[in-house]
Each structure stands twice: as structure tokens, then as C-alpha cells.
Amino acid sequence: MPVPSELPARVTLLARDGKIIEAIKALREDSGLGLKEAKDAVDAYLSGAQSNSDSAAPTGTVSGAVVDALRRGKKIEAIRMYREQHHCGLKDSKEAIEAYLAEHKELQQHFFNFDAQQKKKLWNRFLALAFIALLLLAYVFKSKA
């Protein structure tokens, strides 16, 4: 049986996610190829995909839920949701989200403003705790004297 010139989408997604054995099994199921032919086809795809920079980031659309997560400053959550929706790897999802942020300057600015606000809140909490610690130390030393 001839090796297909183009692999099915689910096979390429599995291969890009590093699920080589599952990709080979899926190709065998879809095409009826033998084990060696399917393995060679997946290996050939992977060697071509790794040298081809065009397949670095998926071209899927970003859903409203992902945008909402970015607006709330939850970049990791946005990457996770994108990854689940598009069935792609972590690296590809991260690159896609970063590319989306680069294309949407207003959202990128909002995302970084939110991040700065979070850091300011954390700094304020630290200062409050440090002040309380100093007060406690002063109280302890004053009561001993």
C-alpha cells in the first residue's frame, strides 16, 4: 500500500504533541499501512516539520474565553485553553498566544497593566507585613526592657 503524500490532521497533531506511538497507530488505522511504513511516514513528517518554520504556530482563532483570560491577566490559563481547543502542543500554544498579544496591542497593554497592578498589590502586602513585623519586634523589645 502506498504511503500517503499528506498525513491526516489527527496524525499530524498527535505527532506534533510528541505522541509518536499514537500517531503511528492512527495512521495505520486510517490508511491500512504496515507498522514500518507508518513509522517511516511519521518520522518523515516530524523531520520535515522540525525543519519547516511555517508550522511553528497554529493558525487557529482565539476564542472569547481565551481573550477573557488574557484580560484578567491569566496568561497560563489562556495558553491551556488554547491548547485544549486547538489540540496542539504547549510550545505552539504559547507562541500562538504571544503572537495574538503582539497583534492586539490594546489587549497586550491591558494585560501588562493588569500584571503591573498585581505586582503593586503584592508589594503593598509585603510592606504591610514588614511594618507589622517591625511593630511586633518593637513591642517585644519594649516589654522586655
Characterise this structure.
By secondary structure, the protein is mostly helical. The protein has 2 domains: 9-55; 64-144, no CATH class. It has 7 helices and no strands. The chain has helices at 9-16, 20-31, 35-51, 64-71, 75-86, 90-103, 105-144. Helix 1 (9-16) runs antiparallel to helix 2, helix 4 (64-71) runs antiparallel to helix 5 (75-86) and helix 5 crosses helix 6 (90-103). The chain is elongated and about 90 Å long.
> Helix/strand-derived class?
mainly alpha
Number of strands: 0
* Share of β-strand residues: under 5%
Rg, nearest Å:
25 Å
Oligomer: single chain
Tally of helical segments: 7
Helix content: over 70%
N-to-C SSE string, H for helix and E for strand: HHHHHHH
Our count of domains comes out at 2
Morphology: elongated
**What is the straight-line distance between the termini?**
93 Å
Any low-confidence stretches, pLDDT <50, length ≥5? 50-59
- Quick check: average pLDDT? 82
Largest sheet: none
Task: Give the key terms.
single chain, 145 residues, mainly alpha, 2 domains, 7 helices, 0% strand, elongated
